[in-house]
Design brief:
The chain contains two helices and two strands. It has a two-stranded parallel sheet with strand order 1-2. The N and C termini lie close together (about 10 Å). About 30% of the residues lie in helices and about 10% in strands. The radius of gyration is 14 Å and the shape is elongated. Helix 1 links the parallel strand 1 and strand 2. The relative contact order is 0.23. The chain is α+β, with helices and mostly antiparallel strands.
Length: about 90
């Protein structure tokens, strides 16, 4: 799965977040043992492709906006890896 989006306020745009909230529903996509390595998307890969509206140096560790890896961790770990994707 590839998500292409602009980074809005250090997170997902509202429409994409709303889609995640509706589609990645408890009981259907996660719950019980259906998380992380046991998730329904185990063996599948996910990729984030995004625009920031700022220069690359602003998103480095110690940069003006902070490390892009830290900014994206809630999406990578808290959404995609949580349901089993390899990110």
């Amino acid at each position: 799965m590839i998500w292409q989006f602009p980074l809005w306020w250090f997170g997902l745009p509202g429409v994409l977040k709303g889609w995640v909230d509706r589609v990645f529903a408890m009981g259907r996509m996660y719950g019980g043992k259906k998380i992380y390595q046991g998730g329904v998307f185990r063996g599948k890969r996910a990729l984030l492709s995004l625009t920031t509206g700022g220069p690359a140096p602003a998103y480095l560790k110690g940069g003006f906006n902070g490390d892009i890896e830290a900014i994206l961790r809630p999406v990578q770990r808290g959404i995609l890896q949580f349901v089993g994707f390899d990110v």
